[in-house]
């Protein structure tokens, strides 16, 4: 997996998420002690509410971030886009079970080339998907392109902590504990070996904030949770 690049990496990641789709939500809860719900809720609270309209959730997976967005009075619908079919299918089923079928629109699509017109959405979000993108700057730029002026992009992601002690603890957990959790509970050691690799190769919260500035976003907000191992970074598109 380490050597995969470009389309090969994208295909690997897509197949991997389809394989673990049935246990993805459960594993998220186990590995974060249930805190991922609170983190998504906090991130959803940063999207703003300048006007009512449709929100975009990129790498929507099984839909949890989209459902938090739908709890906001100003969000009429959420378009959830993902390239992993089975993950998206589970999101659609969950939406129906929650009475949100008409408000959650699942689309198969590529974050690097979003199939939407400029200035279409009142916000764009991505939760725990940014580190899987082949070209993160392009994906962020696409999110900026499709949101309306004055709207925000919000990224929730596992990041590399900067403190020495937390950095060492972080590495130990993801390298030594995570693969075994994946093997035992998801019966897919490969998928949960990929997770620490992807996290280790990802950036710090500060790096992510800088990238969002380079994409043209302003008024950058950085919120760290989980002892600095998870960041919520948001930025506003110029009016």
Automatic annotation (TrEMBL):
HAMAP family: MenG_UbiE_methyltr. PANTHER family: 2-METHOXY-6-POLYPRENYL-1,4-BENZOQUINOL METHYLASE, MITOCHONDRIAL (PTHR43591:SF24), METHYLTRANSFERASE (PTHR43591). Gene3D superfamilies: Vaccinia Virus protein VP39 (3.40.50.150). This is Demethylmenaquinone methyltransferase. CDD domains: AdoMet_MTases (cd02440). GO terms for molecular function: methyltransferase activity. It comes from marine metagenome. Pfam families: Ubie_methyltran. Keywords: Methyltransferase, S-adenosyl-L-methionine, Transferase. SUPFAM superfamilies: S-adenosyl-L-methionine-dependent methyltransferases. The keyword Methyltransferase applies. GO terms for biological process: methylation.
């Amino acid at each position: 997996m380490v050597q995969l690049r470009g389309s090969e990496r994208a295909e690997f990641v897509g197949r991997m998420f389809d394989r673990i789709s049935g246990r993805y939500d459960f594993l998220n809860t186990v590995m974060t002690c249930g805190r991922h719900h609170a983190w998504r809720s906090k991130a959803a609270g940063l999207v703003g509410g300048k006007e009512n309209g449709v929100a975009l959730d990129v790498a929507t997976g099984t839909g949890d971030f989209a459902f938090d967005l739908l709890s906001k009075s100003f969000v009429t619908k959420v378009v959830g886009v993902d390239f992993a079919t089975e993950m998206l299918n589970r999101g659609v089923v969950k939406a129906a079970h929650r009475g949100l079928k008409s408000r959650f629109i699942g689309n198969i699509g590529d974050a690097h080339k979003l199939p939407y017109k400029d200035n279409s959405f009142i916000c764009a979000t991505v939760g725990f998907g940014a580190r899987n993108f082949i070209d993160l700057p392009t994906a962020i730029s696409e999110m900026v392109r499709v949101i309306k002026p004055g709207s925000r992009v919000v990224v929730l992601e596992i990041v590399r902590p900067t403190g020495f002690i937390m950095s060492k603890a972080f590495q130990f957990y993801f390298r030594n504990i995570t693969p075994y959790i994946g093997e035992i509970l998801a019966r897919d050691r490969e998928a949960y070996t990929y997770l620490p690799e992807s996290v280790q190769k990802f950036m710090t919260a500060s790096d992510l904030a800088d990238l969002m500035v380079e994409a043209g976003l302003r008024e950058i907000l950085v919120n760290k949770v989980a002892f600095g191992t998870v960041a919520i970074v948001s930025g506003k598109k110029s009016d």
